[in-house]
Amino acid sequence: MSNTMTPTGTETILLAEDEDGVRTLIAHILCTSGYTILEAHDGEEALAMCRAYEDRIHLLITDMVMPQMSGRQLVDQFGALRPAAKVLYLSGYTDDVVVGDELVREDVAFLYKPFTAIALACKVREVLDSKCVDLKIRSSQ
């Protein structure tokens, strides 16, 4: 992987992923792309980091399915703490699971697992550069 081909950045990203190997790999890819990464193994740890971290968090990357707290539940609580931050969901589940959780919408950033390092770096840069701040799921009225 050549860094000249990989999008880079300097923003801070909070990464919530319960699978250690996946979290470590994502963190490595994004760190080598210049980002500051805060790693959390679940939603509760991510929220604790969010509360404790004093600087800006630009992006939350969260797995959709995690023990105790889903990615959607995490995003709801995270959004109250960091309303200007953007969100990128990850999942290895099929479209049926994602549709059932109302994630397939134009205003929700999503990346299916497995993905390549380039795909991850490009999607992160795309989300960070997007004009839309409200990438979080809103409950149906």
Descriptive report:
By secondary structure, the chain is α/β, with parallel strands linked by helices. The protein has a single domain (12-129), classed as Rossmann fold. It has five helices and five strands. It has helices at 20-32, 43-52, 71-81, 95-100, 117-129; strands at 12-16, 36-40, 59-63, 86-91, 109-112. It has a five-stranded parallel sheet with strand order 2-1-3-4-5, sandwiched between helices. Helix 3 (71-81) links the parallel strand 3 and strand 4. It is globular. The N and C termini lie far apart (45 Å).
Question: Which characteristics define this entry?
Answer:
alpha/beta; 5 helices; 141 residues; globular; five-stranded parallel sheet; 5 strands; Rossmann fold
In short:
The chain is an alpha/beta fold and 141 residues long.
Topology summary:
Layout: E1 12-16, H1 20-32, E2 36-40, H2 43-52, E3 59-63, H3 71-81, E4 86-91, H4 95-100, E5 109-112, H5 117-129
Parallel strand pairs: 1-2, 1-3, 3-4, 4-5
Helix pairs in contact: 2-3
Summarize model confidence as the mean pLDDT: 84
Pattern of helices and strands? EHEHEHEHEH
Major beta sheet, strand line-up: 2-1-3-4-5
What is the class in the CATH system?
Alpha Beta
Helical percentage: 25-40%
Give the C-alpha Rg: 14 Å
Oligomer type: single chain
Q: What's the architecture in CATH terms?
A: 3-Layer(aba) Sandwich
Shape: globular
Residue runs with pLDDT of under 50 for 5 or more positions:
133-141
